[in-house]
Amino acid sequence: MSVLVITGTGTEVGKTITTAAVAAAAVAVGRSVAVLKAAQTGVRPDEPGDAQEVARLAGSVTTAELARYPEPLAPATAARRAGRPAVHPQEIAEAAAKLATDHDLVLVEGAGGLLVRFDEAGGTLADAAQLLGAPVLVVATAGLGTLNTTDLTARELRSRDLELAGVVIGGWPASPDLAMRCNVTDLPEVADAPLLGALPMGAGALAPADFRAAAPSWLAPRLDGVWDAEVFRGREAA
Question: Which of 15, 37, 88, 117 is the catalytic position?
Answer without folding.
Answer: 37
